[in-house]
Each structure stands twice: as C-alpha cells, then as structure tokens.
Predict the structure of Phosphoribosylamine--glycine ligase.
Amino acid sequence: MNILLVGGGGREHALAWKLADSDMVDEIIVAPGNDAIAQILECRVEDVAMDDHEGLVQLAKEEEVELAIIGPEAPLVAGLSDKLNEAGIRVFGPSKAAAQLEGSKQFAKDIMKKYQIPTAAFESFTDKEKAIAYVKQQGAPIVIKADGLAAGKGVTVAETEAEALEAVEQMMEEKAFGEAGSSVVIEECLVGEELSFMAFVHGTTVVPMVTAQDHKRAFDGDKGPNTGGMGAYSPVPHLDGEWEKKAEEEILRPMAEAMVKEGNPFTGILYAGLMITEEGPKVIEFNTRFGDPEAQVILPRLKSDLVGVLLDVLDGKEVTLDWSENACAGVVLASEGYPGSYEKGVPFTLPMTRSEETQQFFHAGSKVNSEQVGWKTNGGRVFLLSTQAPTLEEAFDMTYQVLNQKSWDGLFYRSDIGHRVLKKTEHK
C-alpha cells in the first residue's frame, strides 16, 4: 500500500524510519519531510507545504495513497484529517473537532472536569486584569499556560508571583505566542514526577504503548525555560506498573469514551502528559499525536509492524503490541539560545563512531550543508541520538559516549537526561 506521512521533524523522522520497516508498504511519501528523511524515503519538500491542505489532498490522490499519517499538531488542529477523509483517504489522526484536546487547553480542561478525569485545579481567562488578580489571590508556585498551540513552549511553571505575572503579561499583552496566548489557563502547580503515556485510539478502542519520561527544561538539573523536550527514555521503571494501569483505567480510556459521548470520537495517538502525585496520576496536558522526543525512544522499542497496528486499530480489531525488552535513551542537541532566539545555518558534523544497529540520529532542525561535508542547523532542536541497550544505564552511557566524542560549537545538550533513574547524574 501507499502511505502519506505529513511532517518534517524528529518525530516524523522516527515515524518514517519505523514505517519503512513494514512489509505492508509499497511506497511512503513524506510531505514536506527533511534532508535526513530524504536519505531513506521520497520527500516532497518542494511540491507542497504542510499548511497547504488542498495540495496535500491532491498529492494523496495522485499517489493513490491508502493511508495518511499526520505527525505534527498544527495540521491536525487546522482540520487536515477532515479534508483527507472527505476525499476518501483513510487517516490515522483526529478530526479538527477532536484535535481541540490539544488545540485548546480550556477545551481539554472542561472535558476533564465534566467527566472527572484527574487533573490540576484551574481557571481560564481572556481578561488580563482578572488573570492578574487570580494569580495574586492564589500565590506561587503556579502554572500559566497559553490556551492555544505554542510548539511546547507556551507554559510557565512560575516559582514566584512576579514570574507568574510576567508570564501573564508576555502571553496576553505582548503576544509572545500570538493569538495562542489571548486566552490563558492558570493551574495549581502539581508536585511529583512527569510521565508520558500514549495510546493508539479509535473511538473506544484504546491500545496503550509503553511509557516514557521526557525532560522539558532546557538545562541540567531541570533548570531553565520549558522546551519542546531535551531528551527522553523508555521504560520508566520506577513509575511503570501500578501507575501505568491506573492511568489507563482513570485517564486514557475515560477520555476516549468521553470524546465519543461528546460527539467527537477520537482517532489517532492520544498522548497524556501526566504528573504522578501522592494522590495518583493527574493530567498536565493532552496531545493528539506522538510526543516528541518520546516517539524517538518508544518507536525503536516497538517490534510490531506499525502499519499493521494502525490498520488493525482503524478496523476495530484486537491488537496486542510486541515490545523489545531493551531500554531506549535519547538526548537532543539544540541550537544555542533555544527555546529563545537562535542562529540558523551553523555547520556541524555527526560523530563517526556509533552502533548502526542500535543507535539512530533522528533529525528535526537540520539541513545538508551543500558548501562542505556534513550538516547545518535549521531549527531549535536540531537532532536526537537514540540508543537501544539491555539497560537504561547502558543506553545512556552509549549515547553520551558518542556525543562526547567532539565539541559542538553553536549547539548544546543536557548531560543529565535520565538522572532520576541513574546513579550517575551527569555525562560530561
């Protein structure tokens, strides 16, 4: 069969790499793709943009696509799934209405409140002065979130009241995240450990994946601003087991059922960003696609044919996922300055010594450097090195051994990804 994969980041590189492994595939077209994906599959960088929905539908028709997979959140929230479905093309991705779970934090919060899905206490505001008054009333620590999409950066975990007020000002007055911040959700600050838990979903069919833990803060010691993710690992041995089962029963399945009851049945990847508190798992956020970088450490562990899994879920069949016993660790290299402003076009080369069987470079913000050998930066998060090994400690050791082979002018990475489960907290 022919497959269309929409997107061009690290998540899509991991998806492309996994899809290419399927015996069920004749051709995979990636739009727009990136230079690294183009080394393994056909990319349509010049043909059609990711926000050109009519062009993507036309491309899918021309290439006789039987299944479309939409990687990033923006085209989902904008309704690309609906356009493809209307053209008779099967899509693994939620409708515009269902994608509001990620596109509007207030929408997600309201459903969680209605169906008693555990989450942080919250209030929503479109009036800046009322938001400021609420912050002063509640005090700190407190969490300020832009209601709309902000590429994983529209969240401030404010340790002080001043920091919270500044976040409100930046989002609502200075429009740091454009219209996404014209409405804000202000939440209690949950205490515990974060856990990423995803499932393949179609209506009330829910097939959970293994868990992962992401590291959102930019710098070692979980310091600095929130990013889209600086590294991840799977499994999460100290949080799996009972918490996993509890989260499936109290969060993932109830949300899938709630969306059916609301008349917006969900199809696609349902991602629950959780905080494991003393009272149990609570939802920090829902996403409507694979987490990034979580996809880059979970997909390498999936032994099942991904295409077969997606088709069986869409057909409502019983699905049992086959997972590797190996652990997987991933560390992101990002442009200096990220998640703030950063320079593009910085040349770099990848380390030559790595295990091609167990280690993959998944590219997000890079381009082939046509002027010299190697690559140049083209985004905030540039690439992730993913490593599979029998234990997490071995996986991280192997990852950092490769990254530490050279200096990275213009790039940086955290040296303590996985510090919660490892004896050594830094790899320098």
About this structure: The mean pLDDT is 93. The chain has four domains: 2-96, 121-188, 193-314, 327-412.
